[in-house]
């Protein structure tokens, strides 16, 4: 998981922009083109306390790659932070931004190329809701784990004809892949929490869960290093740099 994704989970200062990759082309970096917040020009009523301003912001990011230049639009809420310069009697106020939506969504989980499409689709769907509704994210991530068990062919039929519970499937899967199974089971418990509206659940909690699924997928669908290993053999045999 990219460090900048973690940064989006807590309020950050205007100007302290996270370094994000373009979700459209997957190659370019995003730069800030336009940022606006409700109180920026002083027209909106400051009410009594200028350090207690809150409202909404919008941010337009643009891919820096000439062949792409796609827009990525971010919206969210802010509260204000401030400092007071005693000497000059100057009050400085700035917005602390909390992201609520990103369109198109920026994937929060890094996937290797061989992760199956059904799992990938569910994870993309989860990435779209994480900032607005972390509980919904946990629920969709659970669906991704269900799809993963389908792809792994883990079918457990308990007595009767009820569909297998995810819990039973994961226990079965853990017999084959203990590490990944342990991580996915933990993510499943958190997904259950997602069903209870009263449970406090933050974007950071959601990312912690996402990281467990990310690491599990990295174990199951490990990056293919065979070409690199084969070249290492050729170099070792030749005792010099060869293609
Ligand atoms: Zn791009």
Describe the structure.
This protein is α+β, with helices and mostly antiparallel strands and 243 residues long. The chain has two domains: 1-106, no CATH class; 107-243. 39% of the residues lie in helices and 20% in strands. It contains seven helices and five strands; from the N terminus they run αβββββαααααα. It has a five-stranded antiparallel sheet with strand order 1-5-4-3-2, with no helix packed on it. β4 (71-85) and β5 form a beta hairpin. It binds zinc ion. Zinc ion binds at residues 22, 24-25, 28, 63, 65, 68, 70. Residues 22, 24-25, 28, 63, 65, 68, 70 line the site of zinc ion.
Please state the average pLDDT score.
90
Which of globular, elongated, flat, extended, rod-shaped describes the shape?
globular
Number of strands: 5
Query: From N to C, what is the helix and strand string?
Result: HEEEEEHHHHHH
Structural class: alpha+beta
Number of domains: 2
Cofactors and ligands: zinc ion
Compute the separation of the termini in Å: 32 Å
Uncertain parts: none
Number of DSSP helical runs: 7
**Rg value:** 23 Å
């Amino acid at each position: 998981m990219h460090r900048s994704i973690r940064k989006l989970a807590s309020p950050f200062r205007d100007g302290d922009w996270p370094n994000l990759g373009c979700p459209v082309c997957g190659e370019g970096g995003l730069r800030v083109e336009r940022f606006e917040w409700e109180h920026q020009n002083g027209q909106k009523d400051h009410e009594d306390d200028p350090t207690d301003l809150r409202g909404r912001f919008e941010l337009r990011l643009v891919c820096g790659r000439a062949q792409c230049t796609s827009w990525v639009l971010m919206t969210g809420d802010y509260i204000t932070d401030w400092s007071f310069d005693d000497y000059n009697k100057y009050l400085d106020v700035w917005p602390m931004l909390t992201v609520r939506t990103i369109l198109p969504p920026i994937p929060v989980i890094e996937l290797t190329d061989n992760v199956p499409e059904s799992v990938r689709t569910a994870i993309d769907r989860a990435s779209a809701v994480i900032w607005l509704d972390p509980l919904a994210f946990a629920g969709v991530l659970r669906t991704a784990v269900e799809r993963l068990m389908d792809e792994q062919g883990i079918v457990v039929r308990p007595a009767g004809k009820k569909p297998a519970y995810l819990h039973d499937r994961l226990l079965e899967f853990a017999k084959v892949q203990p590490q990944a199974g342990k991580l996915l089971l933990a993510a499943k418990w958190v997904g259950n929490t997602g069903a209870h509206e009263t449970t406090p659940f933050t974007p950071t909690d959601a990312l912690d869960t996402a990281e467990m699924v990310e690491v599990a997928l990295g174990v199951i669908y490990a990056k293919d290093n065979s070409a690199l290993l084969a070249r290492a053999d050729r170099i070792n045999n030749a005792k010099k740099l060869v293609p």
